[in-house]
Amino acid sequence: MSSRMAYREKPGRIDYFVYHRWADTPASMLRAMMESRLDEAGMFAGVVSGSPDVRTRLRLDSELQRLIQDFTGNTARLDLSIKVSLVDVASHALLGSKTFSYGEAAGADPEAGVLAANRAAQRFLTDLETFLTNAAGSVDCSAIMTGGGDQMTRRGNPRPATRQRRLRASSLPAMFRASYAR
Fold this sequence. Notes:
Elements: E1 4-8, E2 15-22, H1 26-40, E3 46-48, E4 58-70, E5 77-88, E6 93-105, H2 110-136, E7 143-146, E8 150-153, H3 163-169, E9 178-180
Parallel strand pairs: 1-4, 4-7
Antiparallel strand pairs: 1-2, 2-9, 3-8, 4-5, 5-6, 7-8
Helix pairs in contact: 1-2
């Protein structure tokens, strides 16, 4: 996925803003926020990225399927869709898979789309914590690896996030950033 900001004005057609781009690829920004949020939530002992030499019991794969500002309806909206799968590497078992989809009201300009993307991303990150807690169940492992070579290490089983942790985690910096040419 590129750093171009996509939008739709007609069904079946995707266009891109000419003077506006994401600061990085949306998938990269999403991965960074996932790592930060899971680390902040206390589910993992630490986060190590880009170390394929670490062996883990669990692997978390994620795929950003859709991120588009949609102008086809009466009001503009931002659509975000992410598929995640949790795999027990040792047994080759799929512990859980889910596609998370969110729609957020967005204004008629790219800046409003970025704000809507951040609201949708925060909802996803909260739902991801719950998904991982439920999907990992009682699997005892010392680490979890995210697809693409990023690792998230943890000790023991996922702990449910407390209300205090969620409030603190929701105050993290915005996930999606863009550059705007004037």
